[in-house]
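Loading example: each entry is read as two labelled lines plus one structure line.
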Amino acid sequence: MDGSTEIELTLLLGTAAMLTLALFIIIFVVAYQRRLYAKQREMNDMEMQAQLELMDAVLLAKEKEQKRMAQELHDGIGSALTALKMSIIQMNLVQEHKKQIDDNIKAISADVRRISNELMPSVLEDMGLQAALERLSQRIQDAAVIDCKYYRNYELESLHNDQAQLALYRVVQEILNNIIKYAKATEVIIQEELNDGKYLLTITDNGTGFEPSEKDMSKSGSLGLKNIKSRIQQVGGTIEYRKLSPKGTIVNIEIRDYEKH
Amino acid sequence: MNLDDISALSILIPLISAVILFNRLNKTLKLLGVFILFSAITETLAAIYFEYGWNNMIISHLYAFAQVPLLAWIFSTFTNGFKKNAIYILCGAYLLFSIINVIFWENLLEFNSNQRYFAAVVILAYCLLYYSQIFVEAKIIRIELEPNFWMCSSILLYTAGTLFLFIYNKELMDSTNQGYWNLNCVLNIILNIGLTGSLWMGVRKLN
C-alpha cells in the first residue's frame, strides 16, 4: 500500500468513525433527554397527585370538624340561649330590662345561627345545592356588597351526592369571596346548566379580570386556588378561568359524568 | 451548477434568514447571525483571491483566528459555571496555540492545518459541554424544537465530518479523488440548513 492510499484509507475510516460518533451522540442526546423529561414529568405528576390526595384528606377532615362545630353551636349554644330566654321570661324583672335582654339574646342567636350556617350550611343538607346557591347569592345581594344573581336551566332536586354538593358549594363560596376581596366587581352571575349530559357551573363577574398563572396553581401558589382545584378534582370535574374583554372573569366548572358524583 | 457552487451558495440560506429575523432573535442567535455573516464574507474573499490567482491562505488564517472566539462567545451565552469557564480557557489555549503555530510551523501563506485541527477539537468540546449541560439542567421540554440544539448538532456534524479532511488537507491538495471534497460540500450544506433551522426555531420559541 503506497503512502497516498494509506492516507486516503485513514481519512475514509477516520471521517466515517467521526461522523458515526457525532450521529450517535446526537441521537443519544435526543433519546436520553426525552427519557429524562418523561421521568421528570412522571415524578412531578406523582408529587402533584400525592399533594392532591393530602389536600383531599385535609379538606375532608376540615369539613368534618366544621360540621361538628356547627352542630355544637346549634345544639349546644343555641339550646342554652333558648333556655336562658325562658328563664328570663320567668324572672321578676322590669319589662324594659326584659325586652333589652331578649333583644340581646335574639342578636346572639342570629349570630350563632349565621356562624353555624357558614360552617355547615343546613340548607345544603336539607334542600340541596341549588337552594344553597340561591340562598348564598341572596345573602350577598342582601348585604348589598355586589349585585349577585343565580340562574339554572333545570329543575331537578339534586344532581350530585352530598360530598359533591358540598365541594361545589365550597368552590362557589371561595370564588365569591375572592371576587368580593379582589375583583372590584359590581355584578356576579352564578349559573347552573345541564347541556348534553354535562353539568356546567359558571360564575361570571364584571371585575378587573383574573387568570391564574401556572405558578398560582403550583406547589407554592395560592392555597385558595389549590383548594378549589382539589375539590373540583374530587368530583371528577375541570375548572377553567378566563379573563373577559374589556373586563371581568368567567370561571367554568364542568363535570361530565355528574351522575357518578 | 456543481456541488461546490451549491455548497458555497448554501450559506445564503442562513444569512438571508438571519437578516430577515435579526430583530426577533435572542442574543445567542444574533451572535450566530454575526458568525454566519463573518463566514460568508471570508468565503467570498477566499473565492475572489482564488479567482485572481492570489494566495488565499491568509483568509483561511483570519477565519480560523476569529472562528473559535466567536463560537466561544456564542456558547458562553447559554452555558454557565464550570462549562462557561472551560469555554473561555479552551478559547485562550486555542489563541495561544494559533499564534505559536503561525510563528513556528504554518505561516500566513501556508494552509493552517494544525490550527484547523485544534479548532475542530475545541469546537467538538464546546458541543459536548452544551450536551452535558442539557442533562444536568433537564430544563428543555422538546429538544427537537430547541434552537441551541439545532445549532450545536449541525456544528458537531460538520466539525466531526471534516476533522480528518483538515488534518490531511495538504496531502489531499495533490489527490485526484474528488469524493472527500464532495463530502465537505454535503456537510457544509447540512451545516447551513441546521443553522437556518436554529434561527427559525429561535423565533418560534420567542413567540
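The CA atoms of residues 43 and 153 of chain A lie 42 Å apart.
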